[in-house]
Amino acid sequence: MPAIVVLLMWPLIEIALFVVVGGAIGLWWTLLIVVGTGIGGVVLLRRLGLSNATRLRGEMARMRDPVGAVGDGILKALAALLLILPGFLTDALGLLLLFSPVRSALISAASRKMAVVSMQSDQPARRSDGIVIDGEFVEVEADGPKSPMPKDRPSGWTRH
């Protein structure tokens, strides 16, 4: 029930903040702030896209727990989206999420409730000297592979 109340009260709070802030600083400054934070959110969201994917890929390649990288990327994207939405409350929450200590606190609180159990990599195993050994395998049945040739005829593969 509290989530419904928050969703119903959110637009009313935003409207009240528009009236109060607009009355204090004027219409044009209010519009400039709303449009400016929206543009800032779009720029931030565009910049985050590739960097988050690169950071996550790096964490996975080092076989580290990706919760921190994923959480940080999600919270930065959420901050950008909150900045894009018009309103002073959403802008304040978006700006708050841009601070690293706030994101770290939220990530640590969430990571206490969830954890990575196991990780596997599809990258080839590397030796300690840096040489990659790539190989293929074929599963062989217990009674051996089925030969399409009858056993009484030579297969042509060997000399008899």
From TrEMBL:
<feature type="transmembrane region" description="Helical">
    <location>
        <begin position="15"/>
        <end position="45"/>
    </location>
</feature>
<dbReference type="InterPro" id="IPR007313">
    <property type="entry name" value="FxsA"/>
</dbReference>
<keyword id="KW-0472">Membrane</keyword>
<dbReference type="Pfam" id="PF04186">
    <property type="entry name" value="FxsA"/>
</dbReference>
<protein>
    <submittedName>
        <fullName>FxsA family protein</fullName>
    </submittedName>
</protein>
<keyword id="KW-1133">Transmembrane helix</keyword>
<feature type="region of interest" description="Disordered">
    <location>
        <begin position="141"/>
        <end position="160"/>
    </location>
</feature>
<keyword id="KW-0812">Transmembrane</keyword>
<feature type="transmembrane region" description="Helical">
    <location>
        <begin position="66"/>
        <end position="86"/>
    </location>
</feature>
